[in-house]
Each structure stands twice: as structure tokens, then as C-alpha cells.
Amino acid sequence: MLYSGSSDPGLISDVLVVRDDFIKSHPDEIKSLIKTWGAALDFYNANTTEGRAIISKAVGATPADLDTAFDGVKYFTLSENKAYLSHDFTSKTFPHILKAATEAGIVTQPVTPAQIIDAEFANQQ
Q1: Distance (Å, rounded) from C-alpha 18 to C-alpha 20?
Q2: Which of 14, 32, 34, 38 could anchor a disulfide with 78, C-beta 3.0 to 4.6 Å?
Q3: What DSSP string runs through 70-116?
């Protein structure tokens, strides 16, 4: 193992990224997408075996093929997203992501969490 994200939850993450112009012209769609995420996660948590089967089929695998991947994934609920984006992600995880992205040449200018993280829609849930 080269690295485990267990010591820094959220460091290895998937995030929703939306362009500012799309947010401004389609705020209701963004709200609907976030509500849909919440409903999908509620379904997954209540029906994990079925949820894993749906996800596996969508990526062309079997649930058994993805067992270790599923076991290593933490899906954040809407309330967890709201809390995490407001605190630990901004103050603890973001600096680590920024450092790695800067060292990899992905980020070439100084940025702050406020420039990158907008929890407006998560906070509305």
C-alpha cells in the first residue's frame, strides 16, 4: 500500500464541480441534483446489496469485483456534507489537497478555500 486515506478522511474524494455560469442560470437544477443525491444515498444505505448491484452494473462489473472498493468508500449524507464542508474539509483536508495539487502542477496560483468551496446548496438542505 502506498497511501491510505484513513488518517485523513476526505483527502481522496469525489466532489461535485459546477461552473459558476451554470449555477447562476440553473440554480433549481443544482438543488434538485443535491436532493437526488440525498435520496439515492438514503436508498443505498437502506438497501446496500441492491445499491451495490446497481452501481456495479453501471460500471460493467459485479458486486464481488468491487467489494474492496465499496468497503473503502464513505458516502457523505447531506447533513455530513454540510458539516464537513463548513469545518474539517476547509481547515484540515483542503490544505493537504492544495499542497498535493500545487506540487503536481495542477494548481499554479495561490488559492483559498473560500475561492474554491461553495457550500451554499448543501447548506440549503
Answers
A1: 6
A2: 38
A3: HHT--PPPHHHHHHHHHTHIIIIIHHHHHHHHHHTTS--S---HHHH
pLDDT the model gives residue 114: 86
Give the closest residue to 40 by CA, choosing from 56, 60, 54.
54
Q: What is the pLDDT of residue 118?
A: 79
Distance between CA 81 and CA 99 in Å, rounded?
22
* Residue 61: per-residue pLDDT: 96
Phi, psi of 118 (to 5 degrees): -125, 105
Distance of CA 82 to the CA centre of its chain: 11
Report the chain's C-alpha Rg in angstroms. Answer: 16
Is 113 exposed, middle or buried (CB count within 10 Å of its CB: 0-12, 13-18, 19+)?
A: middle
Answer yes or no: are the C-beta atoms of 84 and 122 closer than 8 Å.
no
For the chain, what is the mean pLDDT? 86
